[in-house]
Amino acid sequence: MPPEGEDTQRLEAQLIEKIREKGGHAGNVALRRELGWDDDQYWTIRDRLVDAGQLQLGRGKGGSVSLVQPAVVAMPEQAPVVPARPGISEADLYQPVANVLRKERVRDSRFRNHIVEITARAGRRDTGGIWTRPDIVVAALRVFPHAPGKYFDLITFELKPLSGINVTAVFEALAHQRAATQAYVWLHVPDEAAQDEAVSSALERIEDEARRHGVGLIVAEHPASYESWEIKLRATRYEPDPEFLNEFIAQQISPLGREELAQWFR
Fold this sequence. Notes:
266 residues, three-stranded antiparallel β-sheet
């Protein structure tokens, strides 16, 4: 029988401590042997920690697990909006863009339920390699009047200020498609920069590459104004492997966000 209550917490702490003793990474076979646990006990505790975002699965004979650093909770919705200005940094874009996504964008997309989190502020958390952490994530539930069932979407956004506009942004967003249903590149192009030849050339190449890979593209003059957001390309919707989707949610979404997601399907 799976352990319950305080015993569960004690065993979870025991497994984490054993992995920490081994440098933060260890094989399943070695962990079961050294802990002296039977298969049911080990897999139950290990899977609870994976689903809680404290462990991530790895490779090797018999499989392995690694510790994941705890997430930093995103700033609240009431945080002040930074006004758009020439030379604005990427970090300054997060909150105004997240605010617009929470309000106008989700209504435009007809989401029944949604959460929006700034995942770029996750500190040094290991999320699986280069380009695996988007800047903003929208998790949403949609219901259609003539189609049975509920449809879950996990949409990622890679934000770039004017100084960071480069085709590399498409490949960053493309890396998120492993777990996301849709991936977007969001670019800040102020009015005064829109006619610049170098900027226009970069935007053209980015749009071509995004179209080729099914990545969505949004170009905005003012981060805090949805009226200035131009949707150049809508992202192609994919159905990721449920295991990758579950791992992404466990590692990228805050505990409060994960609890809200669980409520949607109860």
